[in-house]
UniProtKB/TrEMBL annotation:
<dbReference type="Pfam" id="PF12937">
    <property type="entry name" value="F-box-like"/>
</dbReference>
<dbReference type="InterPro" id="IPR036047">
    <property type="entry name" value="F-box-like_dom_sf"/>
</dbReference>
<protein>
    <recommendedName>
        <fullName>F-box domain-containing protein</fullName>
    </recommendedName>
</protein>
<dbReference type="InterPro" id="IPR001810">
    <property type="entry name" value="F-box_dom"/>
</dbReference>
<feature type="domain" description="F-box">
    <location>
        <begin position="91"/>
        <end position="137"/>
    </location>
</feature>
Length: 175
C-alpha cells in the first residue's frame, strides 16, 4: 500500500523577529528537521553569504530544548507545537486532504459548522473563504438560483451573492 505521507510533511518560512531581518525556513520530513537561515544585512562581510542549514533527526529535535526555543522564537509557539507533534508521529490527515475533497466534505456541513471550522486553522479559513466554496454553497443551498444569475454571481463574487440575495430572501421568509 502506498504511504499517505509525502517525504515533506511540513514546510514553513518567514522573517525572524525584530531587530533581525534574517529569513528562516523549517522543513519537517519523514526522518528529520531541516532548519535553514539566510543572513540579511547591508554589511559587506555578509554579502553573498551562503545559507546556514542544520539537519537533525526527529528524536534529537525533541530532546534539544535550545533548538526548540529557537524555532519557537522565530516561527511562534503554534509552529513549534505542530513540528513537535510531527516528530512524535502525530499527523493531521484532515489538514493534508486535497481542496476538492475538503470542498465535498464542506458541502455536507451546515453553514454555521463551516464558520467554526474556518477558525481551526489558516488552511480551513482559506478554503471556507474561497470562491469555489461560496459557488458550491450558492449552487447547492439556494433553490432560487437560476442560470441567469450565474453571470451576476461571477461578476460580484459568489460570497457576496449569497449574503446579499439569498441570505436577505431567507430572512424575509422567516418574518
Amino acid at each position: 500500500m502506498a504511504s499517505l505521507l509525502e517525504d515533506h510533511l511540513f514546510q514553513y518560512s518567514g522573517q525572524g523577529p525584530p531587530p533581525s531581518k534574517d529569513f528562516f525556513q523549517v522543513i519537517v520530513t519523514r526522518n528529520e528537521i531541516i532548519l535553514t537561515s539566510w543572513k540579511i544585512s547591508v554589511r559587506l562581510d555578509c554579502k553573498g553569504a551562503a545559507p546556514k542549514q542544520q539537519k537533525i533527526s526527529h528524536h534529537d529535535f525533541l530532546h534539544q530544548k535550545m533548538l526548540q526555543q529557537e524555532v519557537g522564537a522565530v516561527f511562534g509557539e503554534r509552529i513549534l507545537e505542530h513540528t513537535k507533534l510531527l516528530c512524535q508521529g502525530k499527523f493531521d490527515f484532515l489538514e493534508r486532504l486535497p481542496d476538492d475533497i475538503l470542498l465535498k466534505i464542506l458541502a455536507n456541513l451546515e453553514l454555521k459548522d463551516t464558520t467554526q471550522l474556518a477558525q481551526v486553522s489558516q488552511r480551513f479559513r482559506e478554503i471556507c473563504d474561497c470562491e469555489k466554496f461560496w459557488e458550491q454553497t450558492v449552487r447547492y443551498r439556494c433553490a432560487e438560483f437560476t442560470k441567469d444569475m450565474e453571470g451576476i454571481a461571477s461578476a460580484m463574487g459568489w460570497r457576496k451573492m449569497f449574503f446579499t440575495f439569498f441570505h436577505s430572501s431567507s430572512s424575509k421568509e422567516q418574518q
